[in-house]
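Subject: Carbonic anhydrase structure
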Amino acid sequence: MAQKLVILGAGGHGRALIELLRDLGEPEIAGLVDAAPGREAVLGVPVLGDESVLPGLRAAGVRLACIALGDAGLRLAAAARLAALGFGFPALVHPSVVRARSAEVGEGTVVLPRAVLGAAARIGRFCIVNTGAILEHDVVVEEGAHCAPGCVLPGGVRVGPRALIGAGAACRPQVSIGAGAVVGVGAAVTGDVPPGAVVGGVPARPLPAE
Ligand SMILES: CC(=O)SCCNC(=O)CCNC(=O)[C@H](O)C(C)(C)COP(=O)(O)OP(=O)(O)OC[C@H]1O[C@@H](n2cnc3c(N)ncnc32)[C@H](O)[C@@H]1OP(=O)(O)O
């Protein structure tokens, strides 16, 4: 019998994951769960309710989940709640991804169309490798981090837990991006970025705080 999977989060990332799962062909999508009221379906997939429906889904034999929340903290917290209910989290890698045989992808991580995972790249749990991102050989991405569309991480770059590499940003080889740091859209990172820092520009510099 086909495995069934529930998607938590009916927003833009949820729509991206519906498309990814349809391209993969499995597991079958049981439905979406979202706290926001008012939607019956997204791209033809039923919105089943908020998280209160999850124990019933689990009892009905839905064993798998993916967390479609862009915010890393919310994504990891939701993963812990669903793990406590007994859900498992497959790694979802789009068929168009160019993945070295030696590249590792952790549970609950999603890799969107046309991304590239180089030799010995290691992507941790509950990460997002977004459309067209290039993660070269020996790149390490830690739990909950997000590599946004079109970013370029050359050999040996390390991305700390929950960090965000913005769309189209690029890094010098071997640099480290600290935990929870944000690299802005289009940045060129030439040196290590401290934990929690927000940087942008070419070359990347700390951005003014709000
Ligand atoms: C499929 C998907 O959609 S995945 C989505 C992935 N998401 C991304 O890639 C978004 C990444 N986020 C960014 O790049 C954001 O601009 C951030 C986080 C760097 C800054 O956002 P905010 O904190 O809201 O900053 P805000 O927009 O108020 O800008 C603050 C200052 O920084 C500047 N700034 C903002 N972003 C950048 C950037 N990427 N590069 C250079 N300067 C920037 C602004 O011009 C502004 O400068 P000013 O004060 O001189 O006018």
